[in-house]
Amino acid sequence: MEAMKVDSESRLLQRKQCAYESLDETFGIQKEIYKGQQYSHIYFTRLRSMRTLLYMLLPNWKPLLPVCTVLGLEEGKECIIVGTLYKHMKLKPSILDEYSKERSPVPLVQPHNFIHPDDYLILEDESGRVKIRGDAVLPSAYVTGVVAALHGKETGDGSFLVEDVLEAGLPHQVERPIISGEDKYVVFVSGLSVGGSSSNPLQYQLFVDHITGHLGDEKEQSIAAEIVQVVIAGNSVEMHHGLLNGQSLGMKELNRMSESIKELDILLSQIAAGIPVDIMPGPDDPANFALPQQPLHRCLFRGSSAYNTFRSCTNPHSFTLDGIRFLGTSGQNIDDLEKYSDAKDKLEFMERTLRWRHLAPTAPNTLGCYPFTDRDPFFIETCPHVYFIGNQEKYETRVTKGTEGQIVRHICIPRFSETGVAVVLNLRNLECHTLSFKIEFDTELEEEMKNRKNAHD
């Protein structure tokens, strides 16, 4: 690991290290073969796994009530049913709506959220489906794909009146190791968008120089030496999508597309020379679209991939540092939840995914995912200590505590190209703070320079 030199006469600062273990195997697509299978398999696998879990919780929740299937419901008889929720949405876009938009001057729906007061829920299991009513389960708080246990009774109109809801809750959490007296930091950054219209090379270089210890006095360099990991959570480059029109590209167009990747590789090489760095793909990166996104190919990073500290990872991404478990995405799962449900902030959406024990409940309904046949990789079996999402509008963080003593640090990582903000986490106590590298330009001076140029011309 690279040692940072403070000055010619003082000691060398040795960068701290920690034990790293990748847990991305579950998100890898290795032996799966696509044979035209439908998405019913992944829904069935999800229901089977979650139902087994919920059945174990029922004796402590409603021990005296019988458990029924949808087909076995009897009018007026209280019981518990377990199944997958489907949310009927009046404003949910369809391909027919997209087709009609081309012929309509006014959009049919608002693009940011598709919630409507007339939305309602349906619960489905292998035997059938039934419409859900009651104030105990609000359609605005749920999405299609969530598995839950409902206590209620069938009414005369054939619907199921819900009196109480049981969610799976936070999964078991491995006890967090005690790190006494020694600070070690993890730096999170996302939305670099290198090569984009809003990118600022100076902003990137300030970030790299700061974390690698090439800026500041001895005190600041001592703090930089305590950074043990950098995580880049998606959207690292901005491709020129105007070139991707389905036609063959010439050498000039290919060079334009590769410029941003080459620039990113230079930045990653500077980081990887001194700090372990994980890079995750995002929705705008040159990777597969459907979740789980597979690692960006190492051939894209000719310089940085030569370092053993460089890791190209999946999205979602899971790993441990000194026994502390991390789980995160590039933001697609939470952004999709925001379109089809309601919450006070992004952190609440994150908390819901942990309570539902599913990282991406809207996949495959409204969020693209691979059609797995015998497993659901988004099922959360172990509760993380740190749960992060990238490419958000602003920085937010909160600690969630579970009923069994689980403690989870939630982190929303803002887009760096727009905010200039990176997030720093202390492994010792899971406390967070931000580093800002935003460069503000003097608009008046810029305007004066533009006027002088125009006058000269």
TrEMBL record:
Domain of life according to the entry: Eukaryota
Protein name in UniProt: Uncharacterized protein
Naturally occurring in which organism (per UniProt): Catharanthus roseus (Madagascar periwinkle)
